[in-house]
Amino acid sequence: MNWLILLGAGAVEVAWAQSIKPTEGFTRPFPTLVCLVLMFAAVFLLSLSMRTLPVGTAYVVFTGIGAAGAIVLGIAVHGDPVSAGRLTALGLIVGGVALAHATGVSA
Questions:
Q1: How far apart are the C-alpha atoms of 46 and 69, rounded to whole Å?
Q2: Which pTM value belongs to this model?
């Protein structure tokens, strides 16, 4: 169950990362509120997953999901450039998250 919570935390982190730019430097009240709520929710879910998962494993998976999601959404939604380097980085991130999961505890 904690792995599912951690996956949810990672998904919320991806949403949080995407919510930062619309705040325009935290000058727009509603987008700023959305950003802060998503930030709180991501860290709250991460903390719940750490009840039984090792801190290092949980944090690596959490940030890996966020990083991979940011790359994918940047390319798909924002038209960020696609390059061999970015795709290699994405593959390494996904591989690292999979390895952290495979070598973590099965809580």
A1: 16
A2: 0.85
